[in-house]
Amino acid sequence: MSCAVMQPYFLPYIGYWQLINAVDTFVIFDDVNYFKKGFINRNSILLNGEPFNFTLELVKASQNKLINEIEVGNNKEKILKIITSAYMKAPYYNDVYPLIEKIVLNDEKNLAVYIGDSLQEVAVYLEINTRYIYSSQVSQTPGLKAQDKIIDICLNLNQKSYINAIGGQELYSKQRFREKRIKLSFLETEQFSYTQNNEGFISNLSMIDVLMFNSKLQVKEMLELYNLK
Question: For residue 166, what pLDDT band results from cuts at 50, 70 and 90?
Answer without folding.
Answer: very high
